[in-house]
Design a protein that fits this description.
Blueprint (H helix, E strand, L loop, with lengths): L15 H14 L3 H21 L2
């Protein structure tokens, strides 16, 4: 049996231009929009953690 990798879902509304840009990027990289958003969130959280380490 496969274990669940992601357990929480989140819906967000984006401006049309952001959605279109993410769609174009993910189409070019052949990844899902969800994967791109998860990576963006992880990157933002890592940046916050690094900033807190310097305080």
């Amino acid at each position: 049996m496969r274990t669940r990798q992601y357990s929480k879902s989140l819906s967000v509304a984006l401006p049309q231009e952001h959605f279109d840009l993410i769609k174009r990027i993910t189409d070019e990289k052949h990844i899902s929009m969800a994967e791109w958003v998860r990576d963006a969130v992880a990157s933002a959280l890592n940046n916050i953690n690094r900033e807190e380490d310097y305080m």
